[in-house]
Structure formats: C-alpha cells, structure tokens
Amino acid sequence: MDLNEIVVFAKVVETRSFTAAAQQLGLPKSTVSRKVAQLEERLGVRLLQRTTRKLSLTEIGQVYYERCQRIVADISAAEQVVTDMQSTPRGLLRVTAPVDFGAFVLGDIVADFLTEFHDIHVELLLTDRVIDLVEEGVDLGIRFGPLVESSLIARKLCMVGMRLCATPAYLARKGIPTHPDDLDIHDIVAFVPVPRMATWTLEGPDGAVTELTPSTRVTSNNLMVIRNAARAGAGITQLPEFVCGECRDGFVYVLPEWRAQPAELFAVYPSTRNISPKLRAFVEFLTARLSPPPWLPRVSKAPSLEAVEARP
Predict the structure, then answer these.
(1) Element (H, E) at 87
(2) What is d(CA 8, CA 191) in angstroms, rounded to the nearest whole number?
(3) What kind and span of H or E run contains 15?
C-alpha cells in the first residue's frame, strides 16, 4: 500500500480538480494524475469519472474515498499534534471580514495582536462577499449571523447593536423625535447593504415592536458614505454601535430607549481536529478583545433641545 497514492487521491476528490490538487500538494499535475492511475490499477477498479469539464466519483470511488478521508485526517492530525508541541504561533494568517467592520474595528485589534505575536504576519481580506475559506486558502472569516449551515466551526464573538443617531446641529434644526412615528417628518440617511435592511425594526422600553420603512433622503450600501453624510448634518441614520458607540464623531443618540435587534458576530474557520497555533492564538485574542465589545455605549438619555442647541 502506498499512502502517497491515498493522500493524492483524497486531495483530488476534495478539490475536484487535478490541477488544484497538484497546487495544494506542491506536485506536478502529471505526478498527481500518475498516482491516481497507479492506485486504480492496483485496486483494479475505476475510482473517478473524468470528462473535459467535470470530475466525479464512481460508486466504488465514493465508498473508498470515505474510508481514505478518515485515514488522511488521522495522519494529518498526528503530524499537527507533533508540530504544535514543538512550535510557537508563526507564519502568514489570512483573515477575511466585512469591509465596514474591518475598517472600523480590526485595524487596532490586529496591530495589538502583532505586537504580542512577533512571528505572525496577517493578511486582511475585506470583502462583503462570503468566500469559500478552504477553496481560497483563508484561515478565518469574521461574519455576521445568521450563518448558513456548513462544515465550518463557528465561535460567537459578541453581539453588535444598531443605534439611531444624528448631529446636534441637525436636531436643533429639525427637532428631537420622541417616538418612531416622528421619524416620518425627518430626513433619513439609510445604510441599505441588502433590501431587508430598508425596514427598521425597533423595540421600545416596554417591549413594543415597531416596524417602519422610512422615506429616505440618502441611501447607500457603503457605511462610510452614510456615516459621513449623517455627520455632515444630512439627517437621522441608523449605525452599528462599533461606528457610533458612546456618541463618537459628534453624534448624539436619537430615541435611545428604542433598539434594533442586535446581530451576532462569529469567527468561523474550517473544521479540523487541530487548528494551527497562529489561528488558535488569533481566535483567543479576538474573543478577548470583543468580550465585552469595546464600543458598548454608555446609558444616555435623549438630549434636550436646549442641550442640543448649546453644543457647537
């Protein structure tokens, strides 16, 4: 039995490509093809059906792969245990996150992480596209829930709330709403990355829930644009707490006793029995920094009009 043939065969099935398997194994494509052919010849069966556009398992190939997969996983886990016991967190760590969360939050966290772990290099891939971590070679993804079911391990990091806010100058000009119904007469600047976020669902202090689709003056799928427009006095907006927490950037809260349903934030990574030291270190560091979230706002009351007018 040649374990190399089994490892190569399992990688071809996993990637569904001789080319991709060769790249991940660091072998010539011809070697990968030869190893699979030798395995089939030794077993006397066809394991893979090959066409110019598609690669699929035969019935026997499927049964054989399920057994081989466990063998390869056990070998990989054994080697990883040895590596973990004699190594420190080091190497390139590739992390993906939503653009806005990465821009507002991750820079400081990553900088502090690198100060503590000198042998790790971080590549941040900021995108709102949900990428395939395994296919694109990414170690960890930071994603908002609800998550779609997958084979990924998900670790909850924190809850991210949304707050209504505006500038004192805008409220002095337009007045301070005391109920969500009052928003009908206000200018609304809305962050709408997906259609469902055009509707605002707010829960009041007595548990009453109000759903409204405000008439907007400005909408955008870019949070920075919305933040800047609202900060310039264009109207009332709803922002994640990591943007407006503790009334940063000259904002004051509007209807502070009314809250949107917070979103769960997760760290997700491929399911393995032994994660790399660099990934384990980052997950633990990220969890510690976001529990509790550093942007949690202080409890505040709605500003009086006098107080708003007195602000510069």
Answers:
(1) none
(2) 48
(3) helix 3-15
pTM comes to: 0.63
DSSP 105: I
Span 174-198, pLDDT tens digits: 999 999 999 999 999 998 877 877 8
Domains of the chain: 3-85 (1.10.10.10), 91-156+272-289 (3.40.190.10), 162-261 (3.40.190.290)
Distance CA 223, CA 191 (A): 6
What is the residue type of 201?
T
Buried b (16+ CB within 10 A) or exposed e, 233-245: bbbbbbbbbbbbb
Dihedral sign, CA of 154, 159, 164, 166?
negative
3-state secondary structure at position 294: coil
| Cα distance between residue 268 and residue 101, in whole Å | 15
Sheet containing strand 140-144, edge to edge, reads 120-126, 91-97, 140-144, 263-269, 153-160
**Within the chain, how many helices (H) and strands (E) appear?**
11, 15
- For 227-253, what is each residue's pLDDT tens digit? 999 999 999 999 888 887 656 667 888
Cα 274 to Cα 81: distance, rounded to the nearest angstrom:
7
d(CA 141, CA 263): 16
| CA atoms of 121 and 92, how far apart (whole Å) | 5
**Which secondary structure element, helix H or strand E, spans residue 91, and what is its range?**
strand 91-97
Structural tokens at position 84: 């973990």
Reference 201, options 189, 214, 187, 185; nearest CA is 214
* Cα–Cα dist 219/225, whole Å: 9
C-alpha torsion angle, residues 166, 259, 186, 302 (rounded to 10) = -60
